[in-house]
Amino acid sequence: MEIRSFYPQPRLLMGPGPSDVSDRVLSALSRPTIGHLDPDFIFLMDEIKLLLQYAFQTDNALTLPVSAPGSAGMETVFVNLIEPGDKVVVCRNGAFGERMRENVVRCGGHAVMVDSKWGEAVQLDQLERALDDNPDAVAVAAVHAETSTGVCSDVQAIATLADKHNCLSIIDAVTSLGGIPVKVDEWGIDAIYSGTQKCLSCVPGLSPVSFNDKAVQRITARKHPVQSWFLDLNLVIGYWGKGSQTGGKRSYHHTAPVNNLYALHESLLMLKEETLSASWQRHQLNHQALKAGIECLGLSFAVSADVRLPQLNTINVPEGVNEAQLRQQLLNDWQIEIGAGLGDLAGKVWRIGLMGHSASQPKVLTLISALAACLVAQGGSVDSLAAVKSATKVYESAGN
After folding, report:
1. Mean per-residue pLDDT over the chain, rounded
2. How many CB atoms neighbour CB 188 within 10 A?
3. What is the pLDDT of residue 400?
4. Does domain 23-272 have CATH number 3.40.640.10?
5. How do residues 125-136 score in pLDDT, each as one tens digit?
6. Which is higher by pLDDT, 381 or 293?
7. How far is it, in rounded angstroms, from Cα 146 to Cα 173?
8. The CA-based dihedral angle spanning residues 369, 370, 371, 372, taken in that order and rounded to the nearest 10 degrees
9. What residue numbers does the annotated binding site for substrate cover?
10. φ, ψ for residue 301, nearest 5 deg
11. Which family does it belong to (predicted)?
12. CA 187 from chain center: how many Å?
């Protein structure tokens, strides 16, 4: 078999991630590679930290991108903050709350579970009861935007409850950062992690994290060494914690993914140029347009409007529709990727992402047309033109 250079077919990425990446960010990837201790690169690292602080809305000094995808960001937070024997209250209302539990257990900790139904937000009264019943807990872990369900939980209230009970708050913002408000300092979040491939609209492979002073004190006062050498922030901070702006000299830890960091810098710069508030409004507008089109097609949302994410939409599969076949037709005939349901929602929903560069009027209208065509192919009776017109009216009312 002859192996040749790989050129993927262009796709419209409207699933749970990754999202589409702009030409501007892709171009940044192709810039000349330089050394990870080059003075020019260290200057870039300083700017990435400043831009991440803006995205997270924080002044935390320990704010950096972990050189691995969002799952490694999650593991970075847990392996640094949780020691053997620690008790952690974990809020689980989807697949990624379960991953938090697994991390606690792998750190040698004990996970106290606060379970909510898939498709519902974390129940604050249940969390408070768990904290009252476990006064020796050291942390509370929760997912802000649960990617498996499309649900947004009130992490400001969760962080407040954690602080009230002398616990650190650990927040998953993989799907929320850049798409909906995330205000680390204002909300009192102690440790948070995200990913680059969702609403930041960058390539996969990096995980922004941020820790406040209280969390850093816990890291530096550990009794046991961090179980992961690569993710040990006591070591990583020597590389990311100092730089040209402070006059410090960075110490070698690992070879950073230089070109991926070019791309992250560009995507964060684009976010700052747009402004956070405008990005949040854009994601909400495109959600409202999608909603209008979806409902005109006779489809419904699996999550109630009061806790529904604008950037990750779970749509109920109509009776009699082969959900996997429809997704395959979208991919084959329209070059559009959407996601299947996970866990309790497997086979019951589609997950449609409107994240980052994928949250735009042309892409939403294309998806609505494609969905209509695929539903008709399975015997459905839907009006594609009416659905597109309904979505277009939303844009027109917003001045687009």
Report:
1. 95
2. 17
3. 77
4. yes
5. 999 999 999 999
6. 293
7. 9
8. 50
9. 351
10. -90, 145
11. Belongs to the class-V pyridoxal-phosphate-dependent aminotransferase family.
12. 18
Instruction: Quote the CA–CA distance of 253 and 149 in Å, as a whole number.
Output: 37
CB 45 within 8 A of CB 238: no
**One-letter amino acid for residue 329 of the chain:** Q
Fold of 275-397: Aspartate Aminotransferase, domain 1 (3.90.1150)
User: What number of other Cβ atoms are within 10 A of residue 52's Cβ?
Assistant: 23
Residues at the binding site are 351
In this predicted structure, the answer to whether residue 210 has a pLDDT above a threshold of 90 is: yes
Asked whether the CA dihedral 74, 13, 285, 265 is positive or negative, the reply is: positive
Positions of CATH 3.90.1150.10 in the chain: 275-397
* Least confident stretch, 86-95, 152-161, 254-263, 274-283: 254-263
E-strand stretches of the chain:
12-13, 62-66, 87-92, 110-115, 139-143, 145-146, 151-152, 168-172, 191-193, 207-211, 312-316, 336-337, 339-340, 349-353
Q: Which are the contacts of 8, defined by CB distance < 8 A and separation ≥ 6?
A: none
Please compute the mean of the pLDDT values over residues 253-261 and round it to a whole number.
91
What's the pLDDT band for 244 if we cut at 50, 70, 90? very low
Can you give the pLDDT at residue 237? 84
